[in-house]
Specification:
Elements (H helix, E strand, L loop, with lengths): L1 H6 L3 H5 L8 E5 L6 H13 L4 E6 L4 E5 L6 E4 L3 E3 L8 E3 L1 H4 L1
Parallel strand pairs: 1-2
Antiparallel strand pairs: 2-3, 3-4, 5-6
Length: about 100
């Protein structure tokens, strides 16, 4: 999958800073990050090829799950979050985040 994205880049993009990202991204919001700024960053991950992105927000005690072409889903104080493709089987234990 990543090789297909790499091969679709122009030579200029391949020799500079390529507009690529991992297939799965987890961002953790810090006290200094305004929520809208981090939400915009999540959209940038999707725009650059991420297939799954999670915004973990210990300030608001939630996890927002992003998939390309779908509205984000916010989970309030989940005990855990189970991943979908491309990392099926990965589970994040969230209980330490909310204590």
């Amino acid at each position: 999958m990543i090789l297909d994205r790499w091969n679709s880049l122009t030579l200029k993009q391949q020799t500079g800073f390529p507009p690529l990202c991992p297939d799965f991204v987890i961002e953790v919001r810090s006290q200094s990050d305004p929520r809208p700024m981090v939400e915009n960053k999540m959209q940038l991950w999707l725009d650059n090829g991420a297939q799954l992105a999670w915004l973990v927000d210990p300030i608001d005690a939630n996890v927002t799950v992003y998939h390309p072409g779908q509205p984000p889903e916010t989970l309030d104080r989940p005990q855990s979050v189970a991943a979908t493709p491309p990392v099926t089987g990965f589970v994040l234990d969230c209980t330490p985040l909310w204590s």
